Amino acid sequence: MSDTKNWRFDTKVIHAAQTPEQWKNATQVPIFQTTAHRFDTAEELSEVFGGKKPGFIYSRLRNPTNEALEKRLVQLEGGADAVVTGSGMAAITAALLAICRTGDEIVAGNSLFMSTFLLFNNVFKKFGITVKLVESADLAAWQAAVTDKTRVLFVESIGNPKMDIPDLRKLADLAHANRAPLIVDNTVATPYLCRPFELGADIVVHSTSKYLNGHGTALGGVVIDAGRFDWPADKYPDFTSFKERKGKLAYIDRVWREIHINFGTSQAPLHSYLTLIGVETLALRMERHLSNAMRVAEFLQLHPKVKWVNFPGLAASPAHAMASAQFQGKGYGALLTFGLANEAACFTFIRNVKMIYHLANLGDCKSLVIHPWSSQYLSFTEEARRTNGITPELLRLSVGIESFDDIREDLEQALAAI
Ligand SMILES: Cc1ncc(COP(=O)(O)O)c(C=O)c1O
Questions:
Q1: Which residue, judged by its Cα, is nearest atom 7 of ligand 1?
Q2: In a 10 Å sphere around its CB, with 0-12 CB exposed, 13-18 middle and 19+ buried, how is residue 414 labelled?
Q3: Is the peptide bond before 304 cis (omega within 30 degrees of 0)?
Q4: Cβ neighbours of residue 63 under 8 Å, at least 6 residues apart?
Q5: Strand, coil or helix: what is 17?
Q6: CA nearest 358: which of 305, 388, 330, 396?
Q7: Whose CA is closest to atom 8 on ligand 1?
Q8: Of all protein residues, whose CA lies closest to atom 9 belonging to ligand 1?
Q9: CA-based nearest residue to 73, from 187, 171, 218
Q10: How many A from CA of 196 to the centre of ligand 1?
Q11: How far is residue 145's CA from residue 133's CA, in Å, rounded to a whole number?
Q12: What's the CA-to-centroid distance between 157 and ligand 1, angstroms?
């Protein structure tokens, strides 16, 4: 194979870590739809189990199709190694449980996907792990929340659905000054727009169910390790054996060996296959997603029935300057929220969209809309909804890659119905 390191991102999405010769020259990675792999001798199986010889044993541990996706995503983020998981939530859970134990603290940006918020506030609490939530863009708040019990900092590179943009380089510096790693959920930005490792982050997680897959065909997640954090023994004593075994890859080894295998956070090989196909068009899709989103935000901003638009691409957005710098002018994401007169107006809008799908997902090539207050956030207290930036008059729009004119016309006619 050619030296993939020199390829541009748009080529890497298609060719990075492709080894057709390994697959009888098939141009797509085959789906290894098998639970286990057979061995001729007990000696060989023992060697593979003992890590003396590479190989595949059982698909909850490793699977060739999953491994092909891991290698592709590692190259797109510029990491060292990865583990793909059955969902984005499985990735987040595995990423954090591989670091924290009872009594530990996590400091996280408060702009979080709702299941992440519930995991942090309700579930981790039961394990004795405390998560302190701070304003993602308020560095002083992060600083004040860090204590000697802090084991990791966690943030979304574009907050879903608050649309705020943290300063990843400053957060990485703060984490490292406190001898802790920074984990970035890069789902909404994608590696096309933002590469957290280049800004100092140590670990990246994704829900691959979104833009990486791009077609709403498969749930999935990934934990990617930059292989740089050194896990000082006084602060992370549980890492000693992993460091002895894997050195710089101690973290991803622990994610895999301790959490992924035992919690069973495995990915279905078919899902990795579908995601690999989706990834091939990521760069092309993102170009259209980003330009459509900018045009949709500008259109909505001028519409008399729209009270406000929250999109980092608009100059009035508090996140605009940070997004421009961090995403190097490539764009501002393709997710936005906007406000109508009230909840009833949102319901009327949703009843009237014709092309745009009303559903609970984002990052699909199709445009998608949802009223989070009455759906995803229904179980939250009113205060918690507002903390998460959710209000009754808010709609969230994931802008797809259809013709902009068709998106505009659908928005126009649905707004006219209010
Ligand atoms: C930013 C972010 N992280 C994680 C997730 C969870 O991903 P999954 O649904 O694949 O578990 C989502 C889902 O919407 C998300 O938007």
A1: 88
A2: buried
A3: no
A4: 32, 34, 56, 266, 267, 269, 272
A5: coil
A6: 396
A7: 88
A8: 88
A9: 187
A10: 17
A11: 8
A12: 13
Q: Which residue minimizes the CA distance to atom 15 of ligand 1? A: 113
Does residue 84 line the site of ligand 1, with CB under 6 A?
A: no
Tokens of 15: 């060719």
Q: Which atom of ligand 1 is nearest to the CA of 220?
A: 10
Q: Tell me the percentage of the chain whose pLDDT exceeds 90.
A: 95
- Establish whether residue 93 lines the binding site of ligand 1, counting it when its CB lies within 6 angstroms of any ligand atom: no
Domains of the chain, first to last: 4-30+63-279 (3.40.640.10), 283-416 (3.90.1150.10)
Do the beta carbons of residue 330 and residue 339 sit within 8 Å? no
Q: Mind listing the pLDDT tens digit for each residue in 300-359?
A: 999 999 999 999 999 999 999 999 999 989 999 999 999 999 999 999 999 999 999 999
Distance of CA 92 from the midpoint of ligand 1 (Å): 9
Does the Cβ of 156 fall within 6 Å of ligand 1? Answer: yes
Residues present in the chain in total: 418
pLDDT score of 2: 47
Tokens 């501002």 locate to: 332
Quote the CA–CA distance of 144 and 230 in Å, as a whole number. 24
In 3-state terms, what secondary structure has residue 151? strand
- Give the β-pairing of 221-225 and 105-109: unpaired
Q: Is 209 in the pocket of ligand 1 (CB under 6 A)?
A: yes
What distance in angstroms lies between residue 358's CA and the mean position of ligand 1's atoms? 17
Give the DSSP H or E segment for 225. Answer: strand 221-225
Pairing of strands 130-134, 182-185: unpaired
Contact 334, 399 (CB under 8 A): yes
Query: Hey, is 211 helix, strand or coil?
Result: coil
What is 30-52 written as a DSSP string? -----SB---S-HHHHHHHHTTS
- Answer yes or no: pTM beyond 0.85: yes
